Amino acid sequence: EPEVTQTPSHQVTQMGQEVILRCVPISNHLYFYWYRQILGQKVEFLVSFYNNEISEKSEIFDDQFSVERPDGSNFTLKIRSTKLEDSAMYFCASSEALGLRSGDTQYFGPGTRLTVL
Amino acid sequence: GQNIDQPTEMTATEGAIVQINCTYQTSGFNGLFWYQQHAGEAPTFLSYNVLDGLEEKGRFSSFLSRSKGYSYLLLKELQMKDSASYLCEAAGNKLTFGGGTRVLVKP
User: In A16-74, which ranges are E strands?
Assistant: First the structure.
């Protein structure tokens, strides 16, 4: 069964450093998403991406965040200058063709645990 | 603004039924999702409701009342593996998750 994959599974970085989290969405999916979940807290939407551009973003997704689809398979989240409060699990997800607001099923990757020291 | 409320925790017995409620206040509404999340794992999709009424999928059912801003997830014939957090997500003008309801199934 196709699945969303994410690398690395764990990332430890120093405050102020840049990190890139990588995701490979399911191959025929057109919508891609990033979420984060701080330990013990709720899942928070960051951004959705469709047709090579951001379709929606939350207030969390400020100028220190960016997303890119550098090739036909990868979808990346870059955090330019990490802060302690960026420590969280970051989930990538993808959906097929209609997008969340039309009831598309999202498939989540296993997550990358980011620890900022 | 957007607000999603769910109970924090529920306990039920194996074989029983549990109902997890979710109330929401959103600007705009494009549907409500339920996910299951086991500890340390990613959420997995359970259901989507956009029209009023009950959607049944095997042991799991989800209900929506748009006029009341209310949904519930019904888990029947509980199994030990159903012990997990259940997340409600409202697709309004913003995509917002509730805090999740941790369900503990006891033998």
Answer: 19-24, 31-37, 43-50, 53-57, 65-68
Q: Which of the residues B64, B97, B101, B102 would you substitute to probe the A interface, choosing the one with the greatest number of A C-beta atoms within 10 Å?
A: B97
pLDDT of residue B2: 79
CB-CB contact of A107 with B45 (8 Å): yes
The count of C-alpha atoms lying within 13 angstroms of the C-alpha of B43, restricted to the half-sphere facing its C-beta, is: 33
State whether residue A41 sits within 8 Å of chain B by CB: yes
Looking at beta carbons, which residues of chain B come within 8 Å of A48?
A: 95
HSE toward the beta carbon, residue B102, CA cutoff 13 A: 7
| pLDDT, mean over chain B | 94
Give backbone dihedrals phi and psi of A101, rounded to 5 degrees, phi first.
Answer: -75, -5
10-residue averages of pLDDT along chain A (117 residues)? 93 97 94 95 94 92 95 93 97 85 86 97
Distances (CA, A) of B17 to B69, B82, B97: 23, 11, 24
User: Rounded to an integer, what distance in angstroms lies between the CA atom of residue B86 and that of residue B4?
Assistant: 13
- Which run of H or of E encompasses B47? strand B44-49
Contact A91 B100 (CB under 8 A): no
Per-residue pLDDT, B4: 95
Nearest Cα neighbor of B24 from B74, B85, B72, B84 is: B72
Rounded to whole angstroms, the Cα distance separating A38 from A41 reads 5
